[in-house]
Amino acid sequence: MGFSTLGLQANLLSTLDALGYEDPTPIQQAAIPQVLAGHDVMAGAQTGTGKTAAFALPLIQRITAQKEANSDIRVLVLTPTRELAQQVHQSFVRYSEGLNLNTVAAYGGASINPQLAALSEGCDVLVATPGRLLELVIKELIDLNNLTTLVLDEADRMLDMGFITDITRILKRLPEGIQTLFFSATFNDDVFALSKTMLNQPKLIEVAQRNATATQIEQRFYEVDSQRKAALTAFLIGANNWHQVLIFTRTKQAVDDLAKELKKDGISTAPIHGDKSQGARDRGLEDFKTGKVRVLVATDVAARGLDIDQLQYVINFELPYNAEDYIHRIGRTGRAGNAGLAVSLVSHKEKYLLADIEKLTSAHFLLQWQEGFEPNPDAQETSNNAKRKSSKKNLRAQALGLKTNNKAKKGRPRRR
Ligand code: AMP
Fold first, then answer.
1. DSSP states along 2-59
2. Which range of residues forms the domain containing residue 275?
3. pLDDT in tens, 131-178
4. Is the same domain home to 176 and 254?
5. How far is the CA of 342 from the centre of ligand 1 (A)?
6. Domains of the chain: total
7. Entry pTM
8. Interval between CA 186 and ligand 1 midpoint (Å)
9. Do 254 and 134 fall within a single domain?
10. Whether the CB of 46 sits within 6 Å of ligand 1
11. Residue of the nearest CA to atom 21 in ligand 1?
12. Residue closest by Cα to atom 13 of ligand 1
């Protein structure tokens, strides 16, 4: 598949031809049409996958289409290091050959004067490290009011290098509603949290690493009645002889109930949630890491910040209300180039949540039945939007510490 199918204009196609780029890389195939269409993008891609061209080419096309005389900075690319800023700058210059477009690089550890001189010549695309950018903004040496796109490149590295405060300060000074492109090689809790604050209905793009064993997460979905989920979980773990299984539930109550059930089935299990003391949580995690217990059951909130390497199995006992949490959950497995398996148990009434996940990940998943655990076709479980809205509303209310209209069932309150 050549570049011509991606919607790029003729002059960019001839530049690519001259550069000897014959076919787009996977990240380019996936990202270029989305960026051209103006969408926010959240992409998992490492340097070396062709990610710079994946955002530079469509952005060059968008800016040249909008460009007016004396235009201000339209695109801002933030990079963690001076070297990357220089590389990205060179890429923009290379890809915009023959077009009337100015790209400037601004980074710390070098005199600001030549950078200011370059900016005064006109700048459509600014590639900058966070510290230097902040200096330029605070001293009012640049105007970002006409910015249309922000690219955060190597977001994970940026956070590792402690740039979060700078980034937050920069974000406050950018116009609202701009297109944001978020690139990160990994998605840990901090990166995920940052992406959530920055992106608006992002298109998710994940590509395998180049020159490394691809990180592969097999995603399997079992349709099962809710009351049979605990038995199916125990069966899957036992029959497949899985060790080190992280299980997610939506509520604290479900964590406790499932841990109890699994223990009854002879599977050593540690429960973790917000009502457990820090000591109990640390002990549970330690026992899980050292293999003393086979299963860790946790809520999404309790699982944040858990750093467990080489995890092979994740089970979604219940699908999350927030589809992005699904990506976060399954990202716990298949780390560092290892294969991983993410199993989700889906009851009839959770099918709308599966549809949300499919929409978010632009994927279609096959719901399979496990022999002996086939769903009862007469099950009267219903799914309707009213119920969903009420659940979401209650979740939010509980997060804010407000009262909800959840009726306690048989005197036992449902805890989250
Ligand atoms: P990046 O991941 O953006 O750092 O790009 C890695 C290298 O791949 C750079 O040297 C690019 O010039 C090169 N490159 C990017 N896209 C292509 C392509 N479609 N075909 C050939 N080379 C490419």
1. -GGGGT--HHHHHHHHHHT--S--HHHHHHHHHHHTT--EEEE--TTSSHHHHHHHHH
2. 217-368
3. 999 999 999 999 999 999 999 998 988 887 889 999 999 999 999 999
4. no
5. 32
6. 2
7. 0.57
8. 20
9. no
10. no
11. 21
12. 50
